[in-house]
């Protein structure tokens, strides 16, 4: 079992969650792990003498199966064989090491995450808002554009200045810089109870 995301990266906010992923060579677990973990956590929820209080256990059957619960009022997300999260963690650790300056990248991410979450209310992928990884990509792009900074406050200033003037109508941002939205494929889908078709531009 490994942690990934903002906790091991040390860029978490007080309201952040803990992401765990379990790995196994046993392919049979692929179909059974979620129900087994859910049952175990639900039994722990009923245990009045448990060392850690567990509650609100949920099994989310999305493309990536997820068990979500509260442990001592901290949100914990548990997944299975999710290598992508660990790759992202390693990548961002390498970025922080490359930039150096007493972990300037990580300190800047914490400050900008705090501003986005507490001040502007635009952070939170589970609410249809910007994801943490997307935000980290934007911060990384600011480092690419400006190169040197006196500290996290200057990174926040440059972040706000640059992206408030960015042409969001025609471009999106990638690790390689701005990408014209017209160059992206359209994703087409049908609404559940109608024949109406809608188009989503991937950003």
Automatic annotation (TrEMBL):
The molecule here is called Polymerase nucleotidyl transferase domain-containing protein
Segments forming domain Polymerase nucleotidyl transferase: 1-67
* Gene Ontology molecular function terms on file: nucleotidyltransferase activity
- Which Pfam families does its entry note? NTP_transf_2, PAP-OAS1
Where does this protein come from, organism-wise? Escallonia herrerae
InterPro entries of this UniProt entry? NT_sf, PAP-OAS1-bd-rel, PAP/OAS1-rel, Polymerase_NTP_transf_dom
**Record-annotated PAP/OAS1 substrate-binding-related domain positions:** 99-194
Which domain of life, per UniProt? Answer: Eukaryota
């Amino acid at each position: 079992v490994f942690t990934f995301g903002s906790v091991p990266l040390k860029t978490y906010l007080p309201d952040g969650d803990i992401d765990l992923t379990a790995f196994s060579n046993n392919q049979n677990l692929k179909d059974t792990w979620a129900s087994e973990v859910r049952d175990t956590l639900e039994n722990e929820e009923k245990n009045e003498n448990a060392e850690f209080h567990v509650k609100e256990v949920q099994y989310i059957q999305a493309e990536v199966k997820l068990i979500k619960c509260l442990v001592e009022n901290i949100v914990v997300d548990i997944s299975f064989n999710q290598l992508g999260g660990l790759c992202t963690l390693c990548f961002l650790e390498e970025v922080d090491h490359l930039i150096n300056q007493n972990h300037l990248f990580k300190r800047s991410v914490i400050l900008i995450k705090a501003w986005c979450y507490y001040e502007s209310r635009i952070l939170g992928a589970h609410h249809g808002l910007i994801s943490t990884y997307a935000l980290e990509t934007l911060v990384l792009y600011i480092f690419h554009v400006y190169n040197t900074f006196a500290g996290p406050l200057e990174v926040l200033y440059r972040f706000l200045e640059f992206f408030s003037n960015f042409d969001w109508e025609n471009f999106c941002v990638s690790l390689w810089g701005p990408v014209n939205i017209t160059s992206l494929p359209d994703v087409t889908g049908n609404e559940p109870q109608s024949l109406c078709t809608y188009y989503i531009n991937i950003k």
